[in-house]
Write a structure and sequence with these properties.
Elements: H1 11-14, H2 17-36, H3 38-66, H4 71-93, H5 95-123, H6 129-148, H7 156-171
């Protein structure tokens, strides 16, 4: 697993490390804000997911008419698009009910992701084994906590969003051992 600061395969990205640092700082700030306002972050996340579902459903309906697939596959795409759009509209219209639904889905995702991260840390598939293992344990515990406390635990979505933003930035930082860390200076090369 590569860190964001490792030398990318495309040399055109190597000189743009400042964008990655800026993105990391923005994610860190947003994560801290979300941790300070977990209820607001939960509602904003729920409404955002609702809009994504609505727009994704509309795109799927358009794709059903634009593709050259079989009639059955086009109908299935259209029906799924309508379902996505209905669910998205429902979540946008009633975000508190959407919070409960998202809490169930997120708890399942956290449990599975936590198990995968723990396995990745144990198997040595990452350079930040300790941090990835820690995040895996936290995700697993947070997923179990969400599952056991529905619907009250719905506000934990905001906590999760803030926690993930902060830890994504920290886990993307390069190690001192990384050989491929991008080193740039403003001095002209001779």
């Amino acid at each position: 697993m590569q860190s964001m600061m490792e030398m990318p395969g495309d040399p055109a990205l190597a000189g743009r490390w400042k964008w990655f640092v800026g993105l990391g700082i923005a994610m860190l700030i947003l994560g801290i804000i979300a941790l300070m306002n977990v209820v607001d972050a939960t509602l904003v996340t729920t409404i955002f997911v609702g809009w994504l579902l609505l727009l994704g459903g509309i795109a799927q309906i358009v794709a059903a008419f634009a593709t050259n697939g079989t009639t059955g596959s086009r109908v299935l795409m259209g029906v799924l698009g309508v379902l996505y759009a209905i669910v998205g509209w429902d979540i946008i219209g009633n975000p508190l009910q959407g919070v409960v639904t998202l809490t169930v889905v997120i708890s399942i995702v956290l449990i599975v992701e936590g198990i995968i991260r723990i396995f990745t840390a144990i198997s040595g598939g990452t350079t930040h084994r300790g941090l990835v293992g820690f995040v895996g344990v936290v995700n697993l515990l947070l997923g179990l906590w969400l599952w056991s406390g529905i619907p009250v635990s719905g506000v934990a979505i905001g906590f999760f969003v803030g926690f993930e933003l902060v830890l994504r930035v920290l886990s993307s930082a390069p190690d001192e051992d990384d050989e491929d860390v991008v080193e740039t200076t403003d001095a002209p090369m001779s």
